Amino acid sequence: MIELLAEFFSFNDAYLNYTIFGLIFLSIAAALIGCFTYVRRESLISDAASHAMLPGIVIAFLFSQQKSIVFILPGAIISSSLALYAIDYLTYHTKLKKDGAIAVVLSLFFGIGIFLFSLADRVTPATSIAGLDSFLFGNAAAMLPEDFYIITLTALFILLVVILLKTNWIAISFDPLYCQSIGMPYKRLTFLLKLALILAIVVGIQAVGVILIAALIISPAAIAHFIKPRMSFMLITSSIIGAFAGIGGAFISFVSPKMPTGPWIVLIPIFIASFAFLLAVPNGYFYRLWTANKRQFQVVKDHVLKAFYAYHEKEFITNVSRVQLVKQTGDESWMIKLAIWSLKSQSFIEKSGTDCYQLTEKGKTLSKSIVRRHRLWETYLVQCLRIKHDHVHDDAEYMEHLIDDQIENKLIQLLNRPSHDPHGSLIPY
Questions:
Q1: What's the CATH code of the domain at 346?
Q2: CA distances to 83, 314, 417, 424 from 420, in Å
């Protein structure tokens, strides 16, 4: 494997270099445009535009009898542009919603493309049409020098346009009505964005195919947005993910020539997405699970401190056993054991006998604070919201863990520093 890596990154094979760098430039360009498409909630537009290119590809081939991207490019652009215009027309001039218009146009154009493809298979020699299906499924290994130059120039053009129009595109993506109200050229900016999307799709269809190119455009942007939903972060991260996918797809095909490059370029971001969904901070599954458990554990610790206060308030008991804490709180025994260990390590409680504990001065202050916030919230619900006193405990049980010092002071001021809660219990200060 090390030898294969060394050979792959030696860049001695000119045609392999065309494939590697062509895929890198293509993936970066697609990821950049994908960010704006994703935040505009037009992910399906890229899918429709890619599928709608098939009729243009076949018609361009029938007229030119050439499978080079130079001859295919104009037909693909025209076909995709017509599809996007049809989507906009159906959306604004009929009762169809945008998702319905996308479905109609995608199905229509792709169906026509498949029909023309089968027709071309009959009316042209088999040797002439051979390889045209690479535009359907992708064949990055067949990338020629002229394809590389077209992809590179297109990617550089897209990068330049993104740099120049980034601020404007962000504005029309998040608040189009405001942009129109201040006189921004909304239609022209939208046209340029869709033109860049079409160009990214057109140059990518030979490598990935019309079926999978939409995934290459949207997947890196979706992953970057999941990790951190900031536009500058998305543009950089999606470009890195796209470049890594391009290199990874080329390497897998290099190691195993029978492996198709296009599907692997799409699958690699999916693998990255799996790790991101599990490990990303703060939206990853494990981080959210850890945060939820940490919050729940803090609630149990608060319950233990309240239990100490309740025993001291009602029965004047200062030394409380673990069994008594379980009985008072209603929480699981193992959770109480962990809570006791944590509170002891934080010097909120201390051991006072065999399996018995008592509050420290620090613990007494905190337990009073929790009880005070609970009873202040009950008082607020009864006095200000006119809720019956026997219906406020559960809500206060939840809010006592969320109220901070500022809200507590506001409640004290609003309620004129009440001395007792609605149940007659003393509010400790």
A1: 1.10.10.10
A2: 70, 15, 9, 5
Pairing of strands 356-359, 320-321: antiparallel
Q: Give residue 219's pLDDT.
A: 93
Counting as low any pLDDT under 70, the low residues of the chain are 1, 123-131, 133-134, 141-142
Q: Between the CA of residue 23 and those of 11, 31, 214, 335, 350, what are the distances in Å? A: 14, 12, 15, 53, 64
pLDDT for position 130: 56
Tokens of 164: 């120049």
Those residues with Cβ within 8 angstroms of residue 103's Cβ, 6 or more apart along the chain or in another chain = none
**Does 313 reside within a domain?**
yes
DSSP 419: S
H-helix or E-strand containing 130? Answer: none
* CA 88 vs CA 6, 37, 191, 303, 390: distances in Å: 50, 15, 12, 58, 58
Regarding whether 403 and 347 lie in a shared domain, the answer is no
Is 150 a domain residue?
yes
Domain extent at residue 241: 2-282
Q: Give the pLDDT of residue 48.
A: 93
The residue behind tokens 């990154």 is 9
Do residues 352 and 319 lie in contact, with contact meaning Cβ atoms separated by under 8 Å?
yes
Q: What Cα–Cα distance (Å) separates residue 323 from each residue in 297, 332, 397? A: 18, 11, 22
* DSSP sequence for 192-249: HHHHHHHHHHHHHHHHH-TTTHHHHHHHHHHHHHHH---HHHHHHHHHHHHHHHHHHH
The residue from 241, 266, 282 where one domain ends is 282
Find out whether 207 and 140 touch, Cβ atoms under 8 Å.
Answer: yes
Rounded to whole angstroms, the Cα distance separating 193 from 312 reads 69
Distance CA 42, CA 37 (A): 5
Domain with residue 403: its CATH number is: 1.10.60.10
Residue 371 inside a domain? The answer is yes
The total number of structural domains that make up the chain: 3
**Residue 66, SS3?**
coil
Residue that the structure tokens 């006592």 belong to:
400
Q: C-alpha angle 314/317/320, rounded to 5°?
A: 120
Is 155:25 a contact under the CB 8 Å cutoff? yes
- What pLDDT is recorded for position 135? 74
Strands 320-321, 349-353: pairing is unpaired
Q: Is residue 428 part of a domain?
A: no
- Please tell me whether residues 56 and 107 are part of one structural domain: yes
pLDDT score, position 124: 67
